[in-house]
Write a structure and sequence with these properties.
The complex is a heterotrimer of chains A (273), B (253) and C (281). Chain A has 273 residues and is of the alpha/beta class. Helices cover 38% and strands 21% of the residues of chain A. Chain A contains eleven helices and ten strands. In chain A, helix 3 runs parallel beside helix 5. The longest helix of chain A has 16 residues, at 169-184. Chain B is mostly helical. Chain B folds into two domains: 1-141 and 227-253, no CATH class; 143-222, no CATH class. Chain B contains ten helices and two strands, in the order H-H-H-H-E-E-H-H-H-H-H-H. Chain B has helices at 13-16, 19-35, 39-56, 59-83, 101-127, 130-139, 145-174, 184-191, 195-214, 234-252, and strands at 89-92, 98-100. Chain C has 281 residues and is an alpha/beta fold. In chain C, 42% of the residues lie in helices and 22% in strands. At the B-C interface, helix 7 and helix 9 of B face helix 3, helix 4 and helix 6 of C.
Chain lengths: 273, 253, 281
């Protein structure tokens, strides 16, 4: 059997530089879209950093594409794993957008002769002007440049640490559309977020972390309806599933606004008949 | 991240001393280290400072500081020992280098001074809130408040900047930048551009701080605005006398 | 009392006005939420209320802003801040002290609050923000939510009539965000403080505030009770702002003729709406 893209086996972590993790095991395969949820301090960021080798587990094994993260350099793992941090300002360090993308490509597995083409491709995907200085851009544009720089490197696994924080709805959707497209093209996604509406709209699988332990791992709709599980990680279901559960009965399975409206229509129809 | 220079909350007698006393005492101990030529006295002062740290509950931190200074000290010791050429030759080395007895003694004194002189100041910062220090400088020594504010802000920002820098390094490592390269010039070339994000975030933070301070009446502040009083107690007088005694002792011997 | 008339403001280096002919009246004791996409002028509006515009950030300003009878152009930011307290998104940047207690003392000392009052106001402010137990903690050891409450306590201690907050929960998780809003609601209901809060989290905002403003292109394009404003879904769409899912659901049900009542702003109201819809059948 082929190696999983990402595999954590009994991973624990204890160090004063991060929140502790205990005995965490899961795998992520190519093409998955996984949301990582948990309260503040649950260890989400630590776990994300364990997955790309920035932090090494103190117990257990993490492999990326079969490579043990403790045995290879982080910069080598970074060729397969893209990581978009919350704060784009920590990434952008070149004075043009194109320069930024080319700088990122320098350390990727994309062959040098393809760099310019890859850069142009990303500029058009994001509709960015390559000659602009990222310094003068808005927060959301900078986040897009950072994402473009990560995606230009063709990561097999993309880790997103609260990618939509500080963005307005429209900007948020721009980012989500682009990462979903990458996902459809085969990149696996692991996304930390607090926004349950985004989880409901995009994720297919959910990991729930609480106080350093993985307390939930399953199909998104199943987790979204598990009020007790979510609550132990300080979370609430997204509005529509929450409303559907409160109503129960015929609405039990409703998940989207369309589902709700359909159910109402059916019930009304029955009454009329 | 807890830095080595942060305030450590506590109720020890050191914590309760007047900030000015602590400032005077730590400078006195520091000065004593430089006045004396005796290894034993310096070791004595080192022991005293460690005892003070123990009393203040910060001894583990003092030892951490010592151990990190220790690494640098070994380097300094080696460099120093090769520079001193007078005295009785103990050992001949290649390239005409020699190790002499006075070289050993001088180098030892040098690193002992280096390590011991740092500790009292670090201890002072551990048991004194920077704001108290600033308040006392404004109230008693009539330092302009804006200077004191700049001082406290600078010290408060050190860990924030360190955190920001490690965040930047982390972000860059995650995009594959090879900081672990052995090529020194390549490393410098990779590190230099990182000054940009650090500068930007620093400017943003200070800008935010300035607005927030301005809106809370920073410009209205006068010297006597400070709420806290810093009376001199018997313990303060004793501590200052102790400092004076140490200085006198080392000056005589 | 806040009265803004025909306010147009262009930052010194700005290409276009950040605020364009903005009109706004806010009465004492209101709890007002402001939403809008990035660049709609929300932050600039908060700056106009606390005097940062035009005193700290300069530029071309037309129209007038009056806060508690003070004209913000003629008054200094310090005079204005006797009435208006401000809290910002960057929890670290807005701190000036290393210890919680000092952070709260800072403003009181500067404004010359009488010595005899300081201790009681300090305790009260910490209690109202729900952080009495953090009094002696180093600010660097606090969580984001705790830091934001310290910032709020530092403002409450100054007894402002109005508190203006610019995305105070931007960096916080859902539970901490709710706790910050609980504190705001408490200050509004029990102490009569006028709250003006800019926020991206529409669902949170709709649950707490009484009056909602939607900004777009430097103007207030919608203004009213939350439920009423949420009905105008096309305006929200144009402004690039989403509305709570339950409000969208209400719109769909209304379109199909199943529902004609008020737009729900939260889950409880949505539940009532659904029962009404089904009961009518």
């Amino acid at each position: 059997m082929a190696d999983s893209l990402l595999k954590l086996d009994g991973v624990s972590f204890a160090y004063r530089g991060g929140d502790a993790l205990q005995d965490i095991s899961f795998e992520i395969q190519t093409g998955e879209f996984v949301a990582l949820l948990g309260e503040n301090g649950a260890g989400k960021s630590t776990l994300a950093r364990i997955c790309n080798g920035l932090l090494k587990p103190t117990g257990g094994v993490v492999t990326v594409g079969g490579k043990d993260t403790r045995r290879v350099k982080t910069s080598e793992i970074a060729r397969d794993v893209g990581f978009l941090f919350q704060n784009p300002d920590r990434m952008l360090c070149q004075n043009t957008v194109r320069g930024e993308l080319m700088f990122g490509l320098e350390f990727s597995s994309v062959p040098p002769e393809q760099h310019a083409a890859r850069c142009d491709e990303m500029l058009s995907v994001f509709s960015l002007d390559g000659e602009r200085d990222p310094f003068g851009m808005s927060r959301s544009e900078r986040q897009q440049v950072a994402l473009a720089s990560v995606l230009a490197r063709r990561p097999k696994l993309l880790i997103l640490d609260e990618p939509t924080t500080g963005l307005d709805y429209r900007e948020c959707m721009t980012i989500m559309d682009i990462v979903s497209r990458q996902n459809a093209e085969g990149a696996a996604l692991l996304m930390i977020t607090h926004d349950m509406e985004i989880v409901a709209d995009f994720a297919r699988r959910v990991l729930v972390l609480s106080r350093g332990k993985l307390i939930g791992d399953g199909d998104m709709r199943g987790v979204m309806r598990d009020r007790a599980l979510l609550s132990s990680a300080s979370l609430l279901p997204a509005q529509i599933p929450d409303l559907a559960m409160r109503l129960g009965g015929a609405f039990g399975e409703a998940f989207t606004i369309t589902d709700m409206v359909k159910t109402v229509a059916t019930l009304k129809e029955e009454v009329r008949v | 991240m807890t830095g080595l220079l942060d305030y450590v909350q506590g109720e020890s007698f050191l914590h309760r001393l007047n900030p000015l006393t602590k400032l005077v005492l730590s400078f006195a101990l520091c000065a004593a280290v430089f006045i004396t030529d005796s290894h034993l006295i310096i070791i004595g002062i080192l022991a005293a400072v460690l005892a003070f740290s123990a009393a203040a509950g910060t001894v583990s931190r003092s030892l951490r500081i010592l151990s990190s200074l220790g690494k640098l000290s070994i380097l300094l010791f080696i460099v120093q020992i090769l520079f001193v050429r007078d005295g009785k030759v103990l050992l001949h080395l290649p390239f005409g280098l020699v190790i002499t007895d006075s070289g050993v003694l001088f180098s030892l004194l040098f690193v002992l001074r280096f390590m011991t002189a740092t500790l009292p100041l670090a201890l002072m910062l551990a048991v004194t809130r920077i704001s108290d220090l600033a308040n006392v400088l404004v109230k008693s020594l009539h330092m302009p408040y804006s200077y004191a504010f700049a001082l406290t802000t600078a010290i408060r920002f050190i860990p924030l900047f360190a955190e920001e820098m490690s965040g930047i390094m982390e972000t860059q490592t995650a995009r594959g930048v090879e900081f672990d390269t052995k090529n020194f010039f390549k490393k410098v070339r990779l590190l230099l551009p990182l000054c940009v994000p650090l500068l930007i975030s620093s400017v943003r933070k200070t800008e935010g701080g300035a607005i927030s301070a301005e809106l809370r009446g920073f410009n209205l502040r006068k010297r006597n605005c400070g709420f806290r009083e810093y009376p001199l107690r018997v313990a303060d007088v004793l501590a200052v006398l102790f400092g004076v005694a140490v200085i006198l002792t080392v000056s005589v011997f | 009392m806040i009265k803004i008339q025909g306010l147009t403001f262009t930052y010194k280096d700005g290409a276009r006005p950040a605020l364009a002919g903005l009109e706004l009246d806010i009465r004492d004791g209101e709890f007002v939420g402001i939403i809008g996409s990035c660049g709609a002028g929300k932050s600039t509006l908060t700056y106009a209320l606390n005097g940062v515009v035009p005193h700290h950030y300069t530029g071309d300003m037309y129209g007038s802003v009056t806060v508690e009878g003070l004209d913000t152009v003629e008054s200094s930011p310090e005079e204005i801040s006797r009435y208006v307290g401000s809290v910002f998104q960057d929890v670290d940047g807005q701190m000036v002290s290393a210890v919680v207690e000092d952070e709260v003392l800072f403003g009181m000392e500067n404004f010359g609050v009488p010595r005899s009052e300081i201790e009681s106001r300090l305790e009260q402010a910490l209690a109202e923000a729900g952080i009495s137990e953090l009094r002696h903690r180093a600010t660097s050891t606090l969580s984001g939510g705790q830091k934001q409450k310290v910032a709020i306590a530092a403002i409450i201690a100054l007894r402002p009539k109005i508190i203006v907050l610019d995305e105070p929960t931007g960096e916080l998780d859902p539970r901490s965000s709710r706790r910050v809003f609980d504190t705001l609601r408490e200050l509004n209901e029990n102490h009569g403080i006028t709250i003006v809060v800019v926020e991206q989290k529409i669902m949170l905002l709709c649950e707490y505030v009484k009056r909602l403003l939607l900004m777009d292109g430097g103007r207030v394009v919608l203004d009213g009770a939350v439920g009423d404003v949420l009905r105008q879904t096309e305006v929200f769409e144009t402004a690039g702002v989403n509305i709570p899912r339950v409000a969208t659901l209400a719109r769909e049900l209304t379109k199909l003729g199943y529902y004609s009542g008020a737009t729900p702003t939260g889950l409880a109201q949505a539940e009532t709406m659904m029962r009404e819809v089904l009961g009518n059948g």
